[in-house]
Q: What sequence folds into this?
């Protein structure tokens, strides 16, 4: 019986599809999702927040050099300290995040991180990975039914698969992509003339308000790992910052 289940699992894993999404489809999906967010969320009317997010966002987008993206910047009236990006470059920043942001460079840390997610299509890839995991789980369940597996054993297998898919497949991938976005975002903000050392200041403040959740349970790297990775990359980022023409152009710090 165990051999039958193992063979079944191997077969359905190979069945999980890896559907490719074209750039046009990605942008269309982002537009659709953005409209859904705007219908359900309250957009902030705070002129200072909106000007800062648009100003910093445009500067980061310029060095990202993806003219085929339709970059848009929104501030949501939401006390949760969060920001996110939708496919094709729709960036949302919650007002609650500004309690951790004391400069445009710290805001650039957040926006550059989200821009990096968009550039690497992390949202699309993550959704496909979730879809694949769900498909495998459904096929395992159907296969065990066809094979006449005892219901109590089937429940145990389904539960084990759910934990395994979440903590062994989905969340490690998410943490990997978050770390990648940190690294790319650090270089983007440096190229745009924002002092990359502000990223350390921001994440250290953010870490103090962290949940303390063990890293293996989280979708994000631990604060200590995130900060350590940024420190490791800092010499390269500072070199980019010192060469950036935007650093001289915006000598006022804006």
A:
């Amino acid at each position: 019986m165990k051999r039958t289940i193992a063979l079944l699992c191997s077969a359905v894993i190979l069945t999980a599809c890896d559907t490719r999404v074209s750039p046009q489809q990605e942008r269309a999906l982002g537009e659709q999702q953005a409209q859904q967010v705007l219908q359900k969320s309250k957009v902030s009317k705070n002129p200072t927040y909106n000007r800062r997010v648009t100003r910093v966002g445009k500067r980061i987008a310029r060095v990202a050099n993806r003219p085929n993206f339709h970059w848009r910047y929104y501030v949501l009236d939401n006390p949760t300290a969060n920001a996110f990006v939708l496919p094709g470059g729709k960036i949302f920043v919650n007002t609650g995040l500004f309690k951790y942001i004391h400069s445009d460079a710290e805001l650039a840390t957040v926006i550059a991180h989200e821009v990096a997610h968009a550039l690497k299509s992390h949202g699309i890839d993550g959704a496909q990975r979730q879809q694949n995991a769900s498909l495998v789980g459904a096929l395992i369940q159907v296969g065990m039914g066809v094979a006449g597996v005892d219901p109590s054993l089937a429940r145990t297998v389904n539960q084990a698969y759910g934990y395994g898919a979440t903590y062994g497949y989905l969340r490690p991938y998410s943490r990997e992509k978050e770390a990648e976005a940190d690294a790319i975002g650090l270089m983007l903000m440096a190229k745009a003339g924002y002092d990359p050392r502000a990223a350390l200041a921001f994440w250290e403040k953010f870490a103090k308000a962290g949940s303390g959740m063990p890293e293996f349970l989280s979708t994000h790297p631990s604060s200590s790992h995130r900060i350590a990775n940024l420190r490791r990359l800092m010499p390269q980022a500072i070199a980019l910052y010192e060469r950036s023409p935007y650093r001289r152009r915006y000598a006022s710090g804006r």
Notes: The two ends are 66 Å apart (CA to CA). Residues 73 and 247 are 22 Å apart (CA to CA). The longest strand covers residues 72-76. The chain has a mean pLDDT of 78.
